Amino acid sequence: MTSFDPAGVTIGEQLPALALEPVNRTMLTLFGCASGDLNPVHLDIDVARRLGMPDVFAQGMLGAAWLGRLLTNWAPQSRLRRLDVRFQGITHLGNAITCRGEVVDICDVDGERCARVQVSNSNQFGQLKIVGEALVSLA
């Protein structure tokens, strides 16, 4: 994490991008075990194919977790007040995801000065997988 200066946060500030290694089966298994999401569509190619998919694919919450890492690489976790995400597409094996964020507003939320940060992740082809918004305390 870089040195976070809440007084220096400005609208338009870009968070340092988080580039991840391509999604692989081991990654899906490890996340499934850690999160408890052992849905076989993410782990078993036969199940995925029976459901019409070409192969297994990443858990949506794995992509959300990467956005959480983007934010906590920028600011301490104790400052994260909210993270809302919307799933836009399936993250397939081999997708190399990059997470990005931009401060779009400085606002008062329940008496606390916060940065509103738009976040997203996309694959190496520029296809959006998740979009969302976070509130980070600047108080």
Summarize the structure.
With 139 residues, this protein is α+β, with helices and mostly antiparallel strands.
> What's the N-to-C terminus distance?
19 Å
Mean pLDDT equals 97
Order the strands across the largest sheet as they lie in space.
1-3-4-5-2
Helix content: 10-25%
> Counting H and I runs of at least 4 residues, what is the number of helices?
3
What portion of residues belong to β-strands? 25-35%
Radius of gyration: 16 Å
Order of SSEs, N→C? EHHHEEEE
Shape: elongated
Q: Return residue spans where pLDDT drops below 50 for at least 5 consecutive residues.
A: none
By secondary-structure content and strand pairing, the structural class works out as alpha+beta
The total strand number stands at 5
**Largest sheet report:** 5 strands, antiparallel
Kindly describe this structure.
It is a single chain. The chain has 139 residues and is of the alpha+beta class. Helix content is 23%, strand content 31%. It starts with 17 loop residues before the first strand and ends with a strand. The model has no long low-confidence stretch (mean pLDDT 97).
